[in-house]
Amino acid sequence: MEETKFNDIKKAGLAGIFGNIFLLIIKASIGLFTRSQSMIADSLNSASDIIASLMTFIGNKISSEPKDNDHNFGHGKAEYIFSLFISITMILISIKLLLDSILTLIKKSYFEFSWFLVLVCIITIITKFILYIYTKIMFKKYNNILLKSNYIDHRNDCVITTFTLISILFALIGVYWLDGVVGTCISIWILLTGISIFIESYNVLMDISLDEETKKIIFDLVKKHDKIKNCYNLYSTPIGYKYFVVFTIAVDGNMSTYESHKLANHLEKDVEALEKIDKAVVHVHPVDMS
């Protein structure tokens, strides 16, 4: 299963790399030739997409490494480290694009209309939509944040390039200022997306605890065991996209050690069967019931 997951994510990363290299070349060539700010912004967005896909490829390779003596819980957090890199790249590029687009509006710079601009937009939308569908299917299958970062990026590109196309077509009726406005909107869109991915990755790397809904499910599992008198001190930490949880159960002090640990082992298996849980450790605390 893990090998299949690694290979599928690797394919998604490679598809993104080659697809975006192709788009970067045609966007940059036509954008610079026509001096279209929105197309230049779109081409730099493709450059950031190449970096994102490359980070997906590298992060997936590292996170797929098995557990070892130095990394007892595996290398799953590598996914979030590299998604953090992706978000920072997106934020930096968006700031540069935003400044360039604002300057274009201030200077009232015009671009040279070309039907090649229209053709490049159509090719981009089709290519990105295919990559979006493919990567989203892989994300739903594996719930991997690197795939999530990529499919969101592909989706955003479809929307961004659609607005780029609209601004280019408006130039046919002499509305050139829309090019700078679209370039500005593209920059803000990339910035907000980058911030969103950054926050999600940061939360995991800072060991954000398990969500309340999953905690409730765990407590509901505990309640199914009549011999458990109480449950408390539930602690959790993310290890990749799953969690390691530890909690304490109170049992009758007269229960034998064998029976109490058998109960704990059974409960651990129930909890580990949950989608978000990788490993569960249950500590047994005997209490005086007299």
Characterization of the model:
- By secondary structure, the chain is mainly alpha-helical.
- The chain folds into 2 domains: 2-205, Cation efflux protein transmembrane domain (Alpha-lytic protease prodomain-like); 212-287, Alpha-Beta Plaits (2-Layer Sandwich), CATH 3.30.70.
- It is built from 8 helices and 3 strands, in the order αααααααββαβ.
- It has helices spanning 2-34, 37-63, 78-107, 115-142, 145-170, 177-205, 212-223, 257-272; strands at 228-239, 242-252, 277-287.
- A 3-stranded mixed β-sheet has the order 1-2-3, covered by helices on one side.
- The radius of gyration is 25 Å and the shape is elongated.
- The protein starts with a helix and ends with a strand.
